[in-house]
Predict the 3D structure of the following.
Amino acid sequence: MTRKLAAECFGTFWLVFGGCGSAVLAAAFPELGIGFAGVALAFGLTVLTMAYAVGGISGGHFNPAVSFGLALANRFSWKELVPYWIVQVIGAIVAGAALYAIASGKAGFAAGGFASNGFGTLSPGGYSLQAALLTEIILTAGFLVVILGSTSRAAPTGFAPLAIGFALTLIHLISIPVTNTSVNPARSTGVALFAEAAAVRQLWLFWVAPLVGAAIGAGIWRFLLMPGESLDQIAREPE
């Protein structure tokens, strides 16, 4: 269990440091040319690389909503859920602190939004609470369907990290203008604590919406697409 938790902590650290770091350190400079698309790709690459690196140890969740959805789909042990959540949030906060320490080393630094998520005045495009809520729920649900489908026994082996990484890139391309993209409560928490804006006051939405979306995605997979699949069934089936 210790190795699983360490892998989840480091994987979540990498996701937040790489994804949010691309926004805080690179996207702030237009001459570097990464823009929204570059940030979206960075998030996808963090998940892809860590899924290959440590996914075999912990399952490569790096996201409380993913762990919750997998448990609801009977693909993850409920007794491990809270420990996973704790280390995921710790990894995200450590990454946020590391990014803040680096970014504040530049003269004239101001944290501003610090890659945090938000709605209303904190939304990059000025989208409402309702728009943010719906966006996060739909995209997290879709993300869970991709994760469950690409890691099922019916899927080609070895390609799940690619599907998941590309899915997260697509999710960011859609929703950066709306919420700056969460679909991950740990990612939202890790940088909100260091933002100058009122991101912490809006953090509740970026826990509630991803968890609701994860439940919907797990339900779509479990009851419509692959009923009956479970950890016990997978363990019993021959390779």
Remarks:
- The chain has nine helices and no strands.
- The chain has a mean pLDDT of 91.
